[in-house]
Design goal:
With 213 residues, this protein is mainly alpha-helical. 64% of the residues lie in helices and 0% in strands. The chain has one domain.
Length: 213
């Protein structure tokens, strides 16, 4: 994951520096285009991987309480990702091309049936806050690792091998203006994160779960 995440992160930053954010009709960064469709499908793939991961939770290895906590956690993460996907496709508007009405026409900056585009002017502050805040929290825990033998924590807490990807993702939140690069890096992070959970459950191995770099 270290090499894959880092290379994909560097590629996204190179793409941003070389071509900039996607530009829309109003000469502003926009999320339209083939890249958005690809990354939406990758998010959907991440949800599928997480759902499949539930079937890999073997009853003989975990107590009933731990199994329930693991299943519930995966379901919660999956639901959050589904909500993000819904926002990205404007809850189907970009697929079925229905017209926006009411508040979505008056107050939504892209006239789409989603929530996040109501706050477009604030995104230049929201993305850096989320990006830098997430990096600082993860970095602090990665930098001062205590000996953790809690399987549940090790399974769901992002692995230190994602350090460079998270750093690149946080850095990208200050670049551009539309936040598309940050969103695409986030999708890569989610895909690798979901795949690691699947691998840990498919092959219960202490090396996969170790928080040591």
């Amino acid at each position: 994951m270290l090499v894959t995440g880092t290379l994909l992160g560097v590629f996204q930053i190179y793409y941003l520096l070389a071509f900039g954010e996607p530009i829309g009709a109003l000469n502003k960064p926009t999320s339209e285009g083939l890249m958005e469709k690809i990354y939406t499908l990758l998010l959907l793939l991440s949800v599928f991987i997480l759902i499949i991961s539930i079937t890999r939770i073997k009853g003989g290895l975990y107590s009933s309480i731990v199994r329930k906590k693991m299943i519930l956690s995966i379901i919660v993460i999956s639901v959050i990702l589904v909500l993000i996907i819904g926002e990205e496709i404007s809850w189907g508007q970009r697929i079925f091309n229905w017209d926006s009405t009411g508040v979505f026409v008056e107050y939504n900056y892209q006239n789409e049936t989603n929530v996040h585009n109501f706050f477009n002017p604030l995104m230049i502050y929201i993305y850096p806050t989320i990006g830098l805040g997430s990096f600082m929290v993860l970095f602090f825990i990665w930098l001062f690792p205590r000996k953790r033998e809690n399987y549940f924590f090790n399974l769901f807490f992002p692995h230190p091998s994602l350090f460079f990807l998270v750093f690149i993702m946080a850095s990208s939140s200050f670049l551009g203006g539309g936040g598309e690069t940050f969103e695409q890096l986030f999708v890569i992070f989610v895909l690798l994160y979901s795949f690691r959970i699947f691998m840990c459950l498919r092959f219960p191995n202490i090396d996969l779960l170790s928080q040591e770099t």
